Amino acid sequence: MKKSILLVLLYLLIQSIAGLVLACGFINQDENGLRWVTIINLLLSDVIMGGILIWMGYLSDKQLWNPTTGRCLGWTLVAGLSAIFITDAISSLADFLPNWLESAFDSLESNWLGILAIAIVGPILEEMLFRGAITTELLKAYSPKKAIIYSALIFGFFHLNPAQILVASLIGLLLGWLFYKTRSMIPGIIIHIINNSCSVFFSQAYPDAKSFLDIMGQTPYFICLAISILLLAYSIKKLA
């Protein structure tokens, strides 16, 4: 557990130092300058942390990059899309939680490089860190059940945003379980990219919508929610 926490703290430290250095380079701290500081900081921190994980040997096992089977990837997609819909419903019930990073995400989504950081680069690095390194460490010290729960909680609280902690922890349970079953980061990377990409797309296409309910209407929404719950349960059974 200690090593897992230290890895998270190291990543946060890298983000803090990189952000400070970049901010000092922008003399005119206008809105556009701060936006680029945020984007470049996120991308630079991901590259640095990825390099550190490689240097520490966490990503040397070829199994981590095994795409698994077509059947596994197919049910991974079903599980991931179902989980995204379910967690959207849970998030809408917890919309009283403050979203401290809303303005930061709006800033990141303002150009293609920020979207790339959120939707592609961030998910890949986070899977490398939280599944490839942290979950691997936890599985060495705890039972699979405890390791998956601990990794999900660490993943959730890493986001440092009340509005994201619950949903990230729940998604983290699925990602951790998939990693335990396959010992591959690829299923998690796929789900993570889809989740973040959907978030970016819907925030851009429907900026006033708080959940899929606002987009779909009650009857289609609750039908899809029921189907998602059944599909998630069935896909987990097929992947078990």
Features:
0% strand; mainly alpha; 80% helix; 240 residues
Structural write-up:
80% of the residues lie in helices and 0% in strands. The protein has 240 residues and is mainly alpha-helical. The chain is built from ten helices and no strands. The mean pLDDT is 92. Helix 5 runs antiparallel to helix 6 (144-158) and helix 5 runs antiparallel to helix 8 (186-205). The protein has helices at residues 2-25, 31-55, 70-93, 102-108, 112-141, 144-158, 162-182, 186-205, 212-216, 218-239.
Question: What is the secondary structure topology, with strand pairs?
Answer:
Layout: H1 2-25, H2 31-55, H3 70-93, H4 102-108, H5 112-141, H6 144-158, H7 162-182, H8 186-205, H9 212-216, H10 218-239
Helix pairs in contact: 1-2, 1-5, 2-5, 3-7, 3-8, 3-10, 5-6, 5-7, 5-8, 6-7, 7-8
Per DSSP E runs of 2 or more residues, the count of β-strands stands at 0
**Strand residues, percent:** under 5%
Q: Given the C-alpha coordinates, what overall shape results?
A: globular
Helix proportion: over 70%
Give the oligomeric state. single chain
Structural class, please? Answer: mainly alpha
- Supply the number of structural domains: 1
The low-pLDDT segments are none
Name the helix and strand elements from N-terminus to C-terminus, one letter apiece: HHHHHHHHHH
N- to C-terminal separation? Answer: 26 Å
Determine the number of helices (DSSP H or I, runs of at least 4 residues). Answer: 10
The main β sheet shows up as:
none
Radius of gyration: 18 Å
Mean pLDDT level: 92
